[in-house]
Write a structure and sequence with these properties.
This protein has 353 residues and is α+β, with helices and mostly antiparallel strands. It contains 17 helices and ten strands. It folds into two domains: 151 residues, no CATH class; 150 residues, no CATH class. Its cofactor is cob(II)alamin; [4Fe-4S] cluster.
């Protein structure tokens, strides 16, 4: 039997060497979090994410998802850029395209999975074969609750995890294991009376502290949602074409966040400076080529056009904006065509031909 306390210390060292900024170890009891999840689902806040309800029990019961699991090794990888002022300025530029920071570079899922597997291999090399499974937002896992219990941070009122020394600009990953490693002290909450995230949410999706209605959330509407965006919410989306960062940008704890040093998270295809008109002109072939290895692929080409059409409807009335919308008035896809028509109707009547 290995010295589990010594092994836990080694795991932290190995994880740091693999590029993770923090590592913690949690138990598998998530009773209160399961009750919170069930109440959230009962209110329909998951919208069209049926998989959230389908795997609800396993999400809160690690031992049912992976039989034999005794502990969860939780890791954090930073992706912040340290330029909140630039982000706000971009959001204020109606002809600029705003892409959530996490999606500007390479898709984090594969990168983190590979590194977590290397961590598992390192553990196996030290103690021999052991039961484990790697997850990075790829299965029914309550990753934020587990990360909280592992001491990585607390769940904020916007439901993102917050770390006192690193803010909230980070990804999470998990290594489920049958090793009875010593667990860490859960993180305590430090949001206090602050409600900046609730106040800044463009669509009022944070309906109460620790309660997000995905049906109003811009991240859900522009990524997970496959249908038309409700008309009453379209003007509130502004120029956000993939995801939303407002609640994190407003969080005072992010003054402690530091810029990441991960080359794979550097912006690709100029997405941190792209204009709406430029992106709206992409063909499907160009979209697939430019989003290869990117989280943006998740929205699909029709979702991409839908989102940009909404943003162009919210943009200033300029010749280039009007011309871009006019170029797709007869788009074959009915949903895209409807969003383009809505966007054109938002601008003063002018002769386009």
């Amino acid at each position: 039997m290995p010295d589990l306390a010594a092994l836990a210390a080694d795991i932290r060292i190995w994880a740091r060497e693999l590029g993770f900024q923090q590592t913690g170890i949690a138990g598998v009891e998530l009773g209160e979090d399961e009750a919170h999840l069930q109440a959230w689902l009962a209110r329909g806040f998951h919208g069209g994410m049926d998989y959230m309800a389908r795997h609800g029990d396993k999400r809160a019961r690690p031992g049912e998802l992976v039989p034999g699991t005794l502990r969860v090794i939780s890791v954090r990888m930073d992706y912040g850029t340290g330029d909140e002022d630039a982000a706000w300025a971009r959001l204020a530029d109606g002809e600029a395209a705003y892409v959530a920071r996490y999606a500007l570079g390479r898709d984090y899922h594969k990168l983190m999975r590979n590194r977590l597997q290397k961590l598992a291999d390192r553990i196996a090399g030290a103690i021999g074969p052991f039961g484990h499974r790697v997850f990075v937002d790829s299965a029914p896992v309550l990753e934020r609750a587990l990360a909280r219990d592992a001491g990585l941070g607390w769940i904020g009122k916007h439901t993102c995890l917050i770390n006192r020394d690193a803010g909230s600009w980070f990804f999470l990953g998990e290594l489920y294991t049958d090793l009875a490693l010593p667990v860490d002290e859960p993180a305590s909450a430090h949001c206090g009376t602050c409600t900046r995230c609730l106040q800044v949410c463009p669509t009022g999706a944070i309906v109460a502290p620790y309660q997000v209605d995905a049906r109003r959330c811009i991240s859900y509407l522009t990524i997970e949602n496959r249908d038309a965006i409700p008309e009453e919410l379209r003007p509130l989306i502004g120029n956000r074409i993939f995801g939303c960062d407002d609640c994190q940008l407003a969080c005072p704890w992010n003054k402690f966040a530091v810029a990441h040093g991960e080359a794979d998270f550097a912006p690709r295809n100029g997405l941190d400076g792209a204009r709406l008109v430029e992106l709206f002109a992409w063909t499907e072939e160009e979209f697939l080529k430019r989003t290869e290895g990117s989280a943006i692929r998740r929205t699909g080409y029709r979702g991409w056009l839908r989102n940009i059409a909404v943003a162009l409807g919210n943009a200033p009335t300029t010749p280039s904006v009007l011309a871009a919308l006019a170029s797709r008035r007869d788009e074959p896809d009915e949903m895209v065509r409807e969003h383009v028509a809505w966007a054109l109707a938002r601008h003063p009547k002018v002769v386009l031909d």
